């Protein structure tokens, strides 16, 4: 049976989340939730409960790392569902906090343009964040929130795949998550995520056929996303169609 939660850390941090008096930034980014730090590179990694693994996922949408907004959303979900089982609470975190905010609209527009929803048998890719949530694993190559100089880490500075602090998360936590979802199509969002995923392909930890190349990061701050998407649209559309011919629902 597929393990659907990585609960060791959640058991450690759940009570701390529930004991918080509020969810102000300084409470979230405190020593109580610090997982790793590189003082020289000014990088901090904090805990957030993004640990649910969906065993039925047919597609993986992979970002860089959860930001502060998603971190706060995840804590809110745990507090709202304090009487639920660990698996129920962690599943709710994934649904509520993953790619939330304005980024979701841009993401859905591009996914629908690639006809992903048709291959999944749903009306729109927006349903992946609601009624069709069972078909997707929303995740990040750095699964826990990373901050550089106190700000959301953007995946490029410092270089993600050359930073030693990140290695256990990219080649460990994320690679193990993808291994559990062995036939799911992987959509890396943006060039930095793509580079991290290709590193795993080069090391034999991922099958190249699963990885759709050329999908831009859907952030509104990515001024090149429309051009990059247009340049890669047809190739991505073919790749997705071919994948689902080999792995029909």
Q: Provide the gyration radius in Å.
A: 17 Å
Q: What's the arrangement of strands in the largest beta sheet?
A: 1-2-5-6
The average pLDDT score comes to 92
Low-confidence stretches: none
Number of strands: 7
What fraction, in percent, of the residue positions are helical? Answer: 40-55%
Compute the separation of the termini in Å: 19 Å
Percentage of residues in strands:
5-15%
Would you list the SSEs in sequence order as H and E?
A: HHEEEHHHHEEEHEHH
Q: How does the major sheet shape up?
A: 4 strands, antiparallel
- Tell me the number of helical segments per DSSP (H or I, 4 or more residues long): 9
Give the overall shape. globular
- What structural class do you assign from the helix and strand content? alpha/beta
What does this structure look like?
- The chain has 249 residues and is α/β, with parallel strands linked by helices.
- The protein is 43% helix and 11% strand.
- β1 and β2 form a beta hairpin.
- The radius of gyration is 17 Å and the shape is globular.
